[in-house]
Amino acid sequence: MIRDPETLNLLLDSVSRFVRERLVPNEALVAETDEIPADIVAEMRELGLFGLSIPEEYGGLNLTMEEEVLVAFEIARTSPAFRSLIGTNNGIGSQGIVIDGTEAQKLHYLPRLAAGEIIGSFALTEPGSGSDAASLRTTAVRDGDYYVLNGTKRFITNAPEASIFTVMARTDPEMKGAGAISAFIVEKGTPGLSLGKIDKKMGQKGAHTCDVIFENCRVPVANVIGGKEGVGFKTAMKVLDKGRLHIAAVCVGAAERMLEDALRYAMERVQFGKPIAEFQLIQAMLADSKAEIYAARSMVLDAARRRDAKEDISTEASCCKLFASEMCGRVADRSVQIHGGAGYISEYAAERFYRDVRLFRIYEGTTQIQQLVIARNMIKAAEA
Ligand code: COS
Fold first, then answer.
1. Are the C-beta atoms of residues 264 and 302 closer than 8 Å to each other?
2. From ligand 1's centre to the CA of 110, what distance in Å?
3. Which residues line ligand 1 (CB under 6 A)?
4. Positions marked active-site
5. Cα gap 42→204, rounded to integer Å
6. Which atom of ligand 1 is nearest to the CA of 178?
7. Cβ contact 344:362 at 8 Å
8. Could you report the per-residue pLDDT of 289-339, keeping only the tens digit for each?
9. What domains appear along the chain, each with residue ranges and CATH number?
């Protein structure tokens, strides 16, 4: 749903200009230094990019899902690290509070997340619990007005930058499965909360992940999201339904950028006396990429509109994440292939994107988890 096309177009234009004029020229620097320059972060704040999906009453832009994916298409046309910094505040780092938080929690945290004054992070994955999220072992044992958290969370995006963490932990350590999991807001600086060293990743330099460790970390009872025990896994799944659709949109934007670079290169590079874009085997790669991007873009827009219409889009979000992330991987591969030897050299963005986009098929649920969610939902619907 697009509420006001004029206002949205102004936002899309300014994001697109920001990407072209400020982010693209700084991609190589970010990859080299593993850091996003502070002036760029400040400009992201000014543009309102940290609060795209946070309701207006808490200082955000309150974009509908359709509006949000249109912005994601634009912001993803550069290094994914830039999107990653604003990604958790708009997605998994804030949506637990937006979807299921109490009014007091919303008032306390959302305005600062929307302004980009603080960074939010989402701590679900553990060393022994990745795809099987419901098997997580971090415990939260009630002690008076507090819960005492113990456990380790792994690969947590933006943890080094985060001021608050949405943490899924087991409030009934004896009970297996999803029903004993609760979601907490844990603030940085809480005694017993510490961070591991920053992970060395294949790509996405400038976006940071690390372990988050809880050792007798005392969290006030008021910080249980929604004030309710035992529903934390469902909160996490609802957050991921939205997150997966957002990532699918990011895959579309990144693929559009890679294809644009590959096309430009193919039109400039001369072999056998003419630009390689004139050879049909190169054209096949360009055309397949174009068609697949169009398909993914259409899927994402359809699913976003359905979510805005309050439909349950668990299946569609997984379809989008599955198709768009795999499509993005194929486009990255073809982009390197079209660039030939140059595609293997770091001077060209194709090499960096090839490594950066590999993560899309893994995080916020692997391709295999999306397949599982889709098939299970199909069976459930057929049985109903
Ligand atoms: N929305 C709301 N509730 C949901 C839901 C959704 N999208 N998906 C599941 N639930 C509910 C179920 O209805 C069930 O509740 P009841 O017991 O009341 O029926 C509960 O959550 C448990 O669901 P389920 O039985 O399907 O859980 P499983 O352990 O079988 O696994 C998968 C579910 C595999 C889908 C889940 O573990 C998953 O998404 N894994 C991947 C994790 C992931 O994406 N990690 C990325 C890290 S975050 S960047």
1. no
2. 25
3. 92, 124-125, 131-134, 178-179, 233-234, 237-238, 240-241, 314, 363-365, 369, 372-373
4. 364
5. 20
6. 22
7. no
8. 999 999 999 999 999 999 999 999 999 999 999 999 999 999 999 999 999
9. 5-115 (1.10.540.10), 120-230 (2.40.110.10), 234-383 (1.20.140.10)
